[in-house]
Amino acid sequence: MRQPAEQAEGRARGFTLVEMLAVLVVVAIAARVVLARLPDVATLGLHAAGARMVERLSAARERAILEGRTIAVNLRDALPPDLQVERLDGDPAAAPIVALSPDGDPLPQRVRLTDTTGACVEIIVPAGFARTRLLTEVTR
Length: 140
Fold this sequence. Notes:
By secondary structure, the chain is of the alpha+beta class.
């Protein structure tokens, strides 16, 4: 006959079903909290394209200053086909073109990039020589 101590040891070797379910519930809740804080995968491409456009505009402004001439940047160049460009100021007919003056621009320029899901970012080209900025949280 088995001793009571041996019987207790035999039961203590594994996990019960209730313990396993409790662990799974905790892991599921933690995963949901973490995933809710991650940005939407579809908008990551939009933000990356916006950041590339900010760099292009900043480099074009520096080039305009160094060369002493106006540099025109076509915003649709090197832009993924699923993104739309919209100028929020200036002439709508010249929507994809931003001209950067070597002596500083008199007015700020705003450009909105929109993807197929409706998410959008705005790019601000400030007046003067201030750095171009990307606004990631834009309300329509």
